[in-house]
Amino acid sequence: MTRKKRKSAEPASEPTDYCPDFNDWPQQWSVVDADLELGRNMLASFTLFVRSLMDQGLAAKTIKNHMYHLNLLGSEIIRRLHDGDESHRKLPNNALILKYVDDETGPLLPFWDPDDNTERGYHMAFDATCRKLYKFIAPPL
Length: 141
Fold this sequence. Notes:
mainly alpha
């Protein structure tokens, strides 16, 4: 029996090749209309970051994992803006993101229990994405 050669898939060229609903994230995060502009601005930064990951030749699964974490981050930033961080709404886009990520971690996500080993692992992976994003958008010292 002869095997047919499988055509290789076209290389991904856009974030939506990894996550089809990528452009819909701002609407998913939005609570009020004012959130849409903030979400679109964050998505613009996330798009540049994801393209840089793609340019590094990372595996598709790795890029998808980072994108999953970016979606969580955007949602958490919008949630926090509604839960007391309202004053941060006026910050420029990357400055807003940098309020929540730094060179070590991202925001503590309330739905993951830090005492559960599995969920702690999820949070460590989320923090790794936040660190990469920080290095990508933080101004050089």
